[in-house]
Specification:
By secondary structure, the protein is of the alpha+beta class. It contains seven helices and four strands; from the N terminus they run E-H-E-E-H-E-H-H-H-H-H.
């Protein structure tokens, strides 16, 4: 079956995620993987005007929120994922690809959808049991934005964080309603952010006004 064509647009941010083949871990120390991703995100942003909002690297996948003013998400990701995969293979002396098939892209067509995804991305390490607070995880742009490490990934001005750092961190570290959390996970598997409907009453489990 042919893959669906990517939706090219410049109005809204995307959430992008890619996972290693067979859900395996990266076969390298995560610090090296982070360094390679950081360098290639920097280069991709300069070549293709990829505007990065946040990035989190996990043990076998990544989460990226980014905008494309030139409506060229396919070019951006073709370069980013292709070069990262090649460099990881060279460093690990491997010949097989790193990532499993296609990456997934979701358009965040409303500010609240962006905010829910922002929290989902930065809480991923907490959900995986890797840290207790979002700002403690070192392979995250949040860690660098807060001055805890040198950050070469060119993140756009984070008005969500810097309008109220203490309040934003408190929000990120507050455990969300499990039903809403699952609704965000479901929504991020669609081309456009689309919260799941409750099977019993047909209502969406996460409305435009809800934040996880």
């Amino acid at each position: 079956m042919a893959r669906a064509q990517a939706i090219l647009q410049s109005q809204f941010p995307y959430h992008i995620t890619g996972r290693c083949i067979n859900r395996e871990w990266f076969h390298l120390h995560l610090e090296l993987v982070w360094s390679i991703f950081s360098e290639e995100l920097y280069v991709t942003s300069k070549i293709y005007n990829l505007q990065i909002h946040s990035f989190v690297l996990m043990s076998n996948h990544f989460h990226l929120i980014a905008s494309t003013p030139d409506a060229n998400i396919s070019q951006c990701l073709h370069r980013l994922i292709g070069v990262v995969s090649r460099r990881l293979n060279e460093c690990g002396n491997r010949i097989n690809g790193t990532f499993a098939g296609r990456h997934f892209k979701t358009i965040l067509q409303h500010p609240n959808y962006f905010l829910n995804t922002y929290k989902y991305v930065y809480r991923n390490p907490i959900a995986a049991g890797l840290c207790q607070r979002a700002e403690e995880y070192p392979y995250s742009t949040l860690y660098g934005l807060l001055g805890q490490a040198y950050l070469i990934i060119p993140v756009l001005e984070d008005t969500t964080l810097f309008s109220d750092v203490e309040g934003t961190l408190q929000w990120l570290n507050t455990t969300p309603n499990s039903e809403h959390w699952e609704s965000v996970r479901y929504a991020l598997k669609r081309s456009y952010f689309q919260p799941r409907k409750n099977r019993e009453d047909g209502k969406v489990t996460l409305t435009l006004n809800d934040l996880i």
